[in-house]
Amino acid sequence: MYQERASRLTGAVVWTNTPSAGPRAGRVLPDGCMDLLWHEGRLLVAGPDTRAYRTDGAGARAGVRFFPGTAPAFLGLPASEVRDRRADLADLWPAARARRTAARVDAAADPASGLEEVALALAADAGPPDPLLRRIVTALDAGRPVAATADELGVGARLLHRRALTAFGYGPKTLARVLRLQRALRLARDGMPLAETAVTAGYADQPHLAREVRDLAGATLGQLLGGG
User: Fold this and answer.
1) What is the dihedral of CA 28, 30, 35, 40, to 10 degrees?
2) With contact defined as beta carbons under 8 Å apart, do 127 and 134 qualify?
3) Where do the HTH araC/xylS-type domain residues begin and end (predicted)?
4) Beta-strand pair 61-65/53-55
5) Is 69 left (phi over 0), alpha (psi -120 to 50) or beta?
6) Sign of the CA dihedral 56, 57, 62, 67?
7) What domains, with CATH codes, occur in the chain?
8) How far apart are CA 3 and CA 63, in angstroms?
9) Residue pair 120/9 in contact by the 8 Å Cβ criterion
10) pLDDT of residue 22
11) Mean pLDDT of the residues in the chain
């Protein structure tokens, strides 16, 4: 059973996923985020995905999902280094630091609480997040074109692309596609007709929405809405 709650870290979400009837494969959709996660005693970093990530459903999991663009400053690594990966924290950090972090999670009442404490400490050490990154997310999530976003933020297209690679793991056009997919799913799950969902979310039409869903999610919209 999957559960989530708002974290004490601004913009982050704390989640747990405990199999209730044996292992069942799952699908994690691209959302522009990175996670610090625990899986059967291992600490991993889930990088930003460009395609759906399939899980085997085995074992309990817990994680902290960071607001898009914030995790690289907390973790001390560019998002592009872990794009489309689930990497052991011990392979990304010095061994002693990774061990101390694992021990902190193990000492907590539960892995989710331990991960949240780690995330709060990382954020405190990193200092205030770069406000430009949130402005990029806000503009693209509102459906603003990439070129218009660069102009509005007063940055060149090349600088925007470099900043996006470091913070989000991919360029602003891919981030815009991912955010648009999530926008469409929210509308469809709220009961909006699919043709209206497509236009409202920023697609040319319903077939365009269907192609993008299959490309990014590896499934049809009907399968996603039905939990398949």
Assistant:
1) 20
2) no
3) 130-227
4) unpaired
5) left
6) positive
7) 2-126 (no CATH), 131-225 (1.10.10.60)
8) 11
9) yes
10) 55
11) 94
